[in-house]
Design a protein that fits this description.
- The complex is a heterodimer.
- Chain A is mainly α.
- Chain A has 11 helices and 4 strands; from the N terminus they run ααααβββααααβααα.
- Chain A has a domain of 208 residues.
- Helix content of chain A is 72%, strand content 4%.
- In chain A, the strands form 2 sheets. A two-stranded antiparallel sheet of chain A has the order 1-4.
- Chain A is globular and about 55 Å long.
- Chain B is an all-alpha fold.
- Chain B has a single domain, classed as ABC transporter involved in vitamin B12 uptake, BtuC.
- A two-stranded antiparallel sheet of chain B has the order 1-2.
- In chain B, α3 packs across α9.
- Classes of the chains: A mainly alpha, B mainly alpha.
- The interface between A and B is large, with 41 and 43 residues.
Amino acid sequence: MGSIFNTQQVINGLQLGSIYALIALGYTMVYGIVRLINFAHGDFFMVGAYASYGAFYIFNSFLGKGTPLAIVVLIFAMVAGGAIATLANQLAYKPLRYKPKLSSLVTALGVSMFLEYFFSAFPLIGASPLGFPEIIHRATFKIGSAMIDNYVIIDIVVAAILMVGLTLLVQRSSIGRAMRAVSQDKDASKLMGINVENIITWTFLIGGAFAGAAGLLSGMTYPRIDPYMGILPGLKAFIAAVLGGIGNIPGAMLGAYIMGLAETFANAWNSLLGAGIAFIILIIVLLVRPTAILGEKTADKI
Amino acid sequence: MGKRKLPQMTLIAVLLYALIKVLSLDSIGALNGYFMIIINRSLIFVILTVSLNLINGITGQFSLGHMGFAAVGAYVSGTITTLVLKLSPDVASSYPIFIGAIILGGIGAAIMGFVIGFPSLRLKGDYLAIMTLGFGEVIRIILNNINYVGGPRGLLGIPKFSTFTIIYAFTFFTIVLIRNLVQSSHGRAMLAVRENEVAAELVGVDTTRYKVLGFVVGAFFAGIGGGLLAHLLQIATPTQYGFYASALLLVYVYAGGMGSITGSIIAAFGLTFLSQFLQLGFDSLSNMTGINFGSEWTMVIYALLLILIMLYKTEGLMGMKEAKLLVIEEGTK
């Protein structure tokens, strides 16, 4: 069994974990602030992948392949992800803010279904998978016994930069401070003069932009995109967020890397276990410690 | 004792049955084979929707993996009947075995409901939803990997035992049994759990017991529905019973109204017919314009419908109201 825990698997796991982390952050931030499991979040990731696919064909002709094009495409993906998330919030979630929580959950399922089927019904896109173009030339090199390509480094570095940026934003900026305040107590934040709806919009925007970025990275790394590509990564990133304690930002990052590694190891051992490991982790976490690794315990008020 | 209205219900059900049967006769031809297929599908979705409503609407829990229970019913009964058909190809004499197999499928699903329900009940709301989602996916992944039942290709060659009469009878019994359960003292306890768990516990309701009861009974009927569906479509695949199928069932429950059996019946019929008509509409639109409108557009409209219902009529079509016929009246003192 020792053979599955080699450097190669660790690197693959970290790469997958980076993509999960970018998705999981959006899940956890939205949950932290509005207590909504946004099932459509995986579809924002899909929108990001399609936006970068489109951006590639727009800008390829005058930028050529390489880093400048990749940066432009990344910006496009993040804008598209952020825009669709903000739109979903404004049109579908905002009117239900003070209705029972489960009605927002069902609405989120509706938004998710809408995006998936709309993309697969839309003539320019279609339900069949598209091959993702090579934005940056793929180069493979060897470290010890492990084969690594530059995409591994791109995925891990881009995710790390974005996460450091997010941490700075949340810890140092006034928007971040307001976000933390709203996640603790909405009413008190309102009394302190925080525009709560504004902060919620920012949260969706940032979460969606991160999902969009993850869409680009995933499209580049596993070069096949289809309208349903967001379902499983979305669910797994969500489980990662639960694992780290949903609502907790460092927890989501930690959970995502654990999930990426666990899935890679499990897959190397047995493909059935690889497919199911995420859900097994979910069930065990919820049974043993629903507040998860970094979550806080809360008592019921009667 | 209140008025149970069972005779009236039976009478109306029998008349309705006779009416559909007569209309579907070849010599009259008001309901052709195509219509009968939609009616059969609608009836099965009535079973599935009402059983999900028992868990989500009446007991106030949240199952997002309901089709997982249906999958258990479909695979258990489908495996039994295909085996029986292989051993003795005489279809006519196999009907009692078929009904037994469907009920066994229901029992299998009920056991699964207990296995899932019991540990999950410490959780509430969101967490319960994702727990059941996780279990539903685990069931799907396991079925995907058992070669004996066809793996991802699914269980093929299931005999077509689900006739209109059998589906109709099962639907009738499901409605009557769930109605009676909901309006018994057990049902009142379930409603109490939904309304306020702490208060229910304080007045002596064994909340855990009623939550488990809701899950087990709901899962049993989901298993029955799944078994009937498998014997209607003659195939059962893991994807048919995945996360999105469960989410679609939620559309039915919410459209009809959480907690209303009447609403679930109307929604199951209305939405099944709607999807067929939309499909016909898009097909003829494709023929007229030459542009291909795929079946995805039907789902786009479904999803929009769900969002609009949640935004503008959160309590669904019927709210928590029931048709008079389905209400057991209390006797006056």
